[in-house]
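REQUEST FORM: STRUCTURE PREDICTION
Request ID: SP-0412
Submitted by: Lab K.M.
Chain count: 1
Length (residues): 193
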Amino acid sequence: MISEPLTDDEKRILLRLARHSIELAASHHPLPTLVLSEYSAPLQQEGASFVTLTEEGELRGCIGALEPYQPLVQDVCEHAAAAAMDDYRFNPVVPREIPLITIEISRLTVPQLLTYQDPTELLSCLKPGVDGVILRDGIHRATFLPQVWEKLPAAAAFLSHLCQKMGAPSDLWRRKPLQVFTYQVEEFEEGKI
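STATUS: Completed
RESULT:
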C-alpha cells in the first residue's frame, strides 16, 4: 500500500492541475512549466500515476506510468493531457467536452513481481479490488488498475480480459507462465474530496 497518503489539499491541487492541463491540451497550448519548490515534498517526489477521464460514467481516456520517473505533480499533468488527447481508443477531447469530464487520479506503488507455479496458484495470489495487475509476455504488456475489479470481479475473467488487452488470446495466462506484477493505488476523483 501507499506508505504516506496524500493530504486532501494535495489531492485537490493535483486534480486542479490535471483539469488545467486538459484545458490547455484541448486548446492546443503547451503545458505550463511547473516550479517544483511551490509544491509540497510528496508532490515533488518521483511518483507514478494514471489519469482516468470519464464522461457521464463512461471511460473517455486513461493514460499513465507504471514506474516513477519524474515528480508526481509533473507526472499527473502530463498524463492528464495525454489521457485527453492521446488515448488511441478515443478521439481527442475538444474544449466543449471539458465541463462534462470527471477526472480520477491513481497514484501507484512500485510494482512487485509475483512468483507462482501454475494458473490456479496465480488466481489465489491476486487480491481482487486491491491489486492492480500487469501482465508481461516478452515485449507485450498490459495493466488493469484495481478499479477494474468492480467490472470484472472474478480473477479468471480479470486475467482473460487483461490478456486480450495485451493483444494475446484470452486464455494465454492458463497456457504458459507470464510475468505478473501487482501494485496498489491511492485513488481520488473530483467531487469526492
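NOTES: The domain at 8-109 is CATH 3.30.700.20 (Glycoprotein, Type 4 Pilin).
Reviewed by: T.R.
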